[in-house]
Amino acid sequence: MALRLSFYGGAGKVTGSNFLIEGVRGKILIDCGIEQGADFVEEHNYGDFHYDVKSVDALVLTHAHLDHVGRIPKLVRDGFRGKIYMTPPTRDLAELILRDSLGILGEEARRRGIAPLYEEQDVEKTFALIETLDYHTEKEVAPGLSVYLRNTGHILGSASVRIKDEDGVAVALTGDIGNSPSPLLPDWEPITDSDAIVMESVYGDRLHPPHAERVNTLRDTLKRAIARGGTILIPAFSLERTQLMLYELSNFFSAKELPEIPIFLDSPLAIHVTAVYEKWGPTYFKKSIEDEIKREGSIFKFPFLKQTLSRDESLAIDKVPGPKIIIAGAGMSHGGRIGKWEVKYLPDPTTTLIIVGYQAPGSPGRRMMEGATSVRLNGIEVKIKAKVENLHGWSAHADRDELLKFAEASLPQAGGRTKTIFTAIGEPSAERFLAQRIHDYLGGNAIVPELGQTWEITKDSVKKI
Ligand SMILES: [Zn+2]
Q: Which secondary structure element, helix H or strand E, spans residue 349, and what is its range?
């Protein structure tokens, strides 16, 4: 028998992950994310899904990033009534991410003069459909189709999803693959039991610096920024990157490698996400960190870190003289509290803006990273006199060589059974580059899928239909 795999998002694009797998009787959707670029939500996300939403039996999530979950409440509003499966940490994180997105979506819809992508009641209905499924537990979630999750080391709770039919034909989707070894999470697990794999390619054509080097560069950049005496802005992705930053900052300060200056975690979302990390860390972090938590209690808190949850606490940051560090979202500077601080501090030459993550083409963050002298933020054209530092290697994504290692571990010569690897969730050049290397270096069959395509997968063949 065969499985059909369709690419409805995340083909030729980093964001908007959305894949459909159909067996003889059942249909499972993997991820339902929004596509982001110059706007928080690209316009076509407001349109109809390209499949019959009501006929889908179940949705399985790889992880809680918005580009993997952000369109679910619209799916529910459009008639999806199946169960939504994810790991327990992903449930807690996805609930925070979706609630938080309501504000930004509302703002964007007002600006565009259209109805929001979804509203609070759609989010609440979504939560009622959630069921948790832990790693390494096989479960039938649609007629004739079972699912099995493995750790991908990308963010807390992140999972690859393997779907198998009654005849044993199996397809796996990696979601995002972690930049292992992560300071916090166990390394990604290989997928050795699938006929085909859809793997991410975000950094398919680029290398990250070694882990020790990224920590040294962060410390040196902060030292220079502190010496300039101004405000240090870190637009942070609230999920994972912020917790990594807090962990490294806490290490710098406890080793007395940096002078003690005020640090503000100025993001209600990041504050809540950090609490979820505190809750699940003892179960899902790597062993060495679990021991550290037992010894030290929290690994994310230190005495001069202030979490500014309320608006008043946030406003009061302005009165604190520099040097000071403000960590706030959104990570690509699409609105959020960082926008307010960027408007205020970027025209000041003593300010340092530290960029620590992927910036989508067209986003304000990408333009600043590429040296723009002015950028439009919160509807205001802002002159950039600040020093912009672009730090590499803090991505939560595997780089070129790590992705190749992941691919290799799934192939028959390493004991796996994967005959075809689809390179997706990347910019087209990165997807093509990774596919070429899988072919040239590993002798594997790699395909760069296109948006809207459907492929039929059996134990012996893969063909486009
Ligand atoms: Zn992700």
A: none
Domain match, 180 and 221 both:
no
Q: How confident is the model at residue 1 (pLDDT cuts 50, 70, 90)?
A: confident
330 neighbors 235 (Cβ within 8 angstroms): yes
CA of 3 to the centre of ligand 1 (A): 25
pLDDT of 405: 97
Is 236 found in the same domain as 361?
yes
Ligand 1 centroid to 292 CA: how many Å?
A: 26
Q: How far is the CA of 224 from the centre of ligand 1 (A)?
A: 31
pLDDT at 38: 62
Q: Dihedral, CA atoms, 138, 407, 16, 379, nearest 10 degrees?
A: 130
Nearest alpha-carbon partner for 327 in 368, 349, 355: 355
Same domain, 162 and 298: no
The CATH number of the domain holding residue 151 is: 3.60.15.10
250 C-alpha to ligand 1 centroid (Å): 24
E-strand ranges in 31-134 read 58-60, 83-86, 130-132
List, for residues 132-155, the tens digit of each pLDDT value. 999 999 999 999 999 999 999 999
Q: How far is the CA of 371 from the centre of ligand 1 (A)?
A: 26
For residues 314 and 460, membership in a common domain is answered with no
CA of 63 to the centre of ligand 1 (A): 7
Span from the CA of 219 to the centroid of ligand 1 (angstroms): 25
The pLDDT, as a whole number, for residue 108 is 83
Q: What percent of the chain has pLDDT over 90?
A: 79
Domain hosting residue 161, numbered range = 3-206+396-464
Distance of CA 423 to the CA centre of its chain: 17
Same domain, 228 and 262: yes
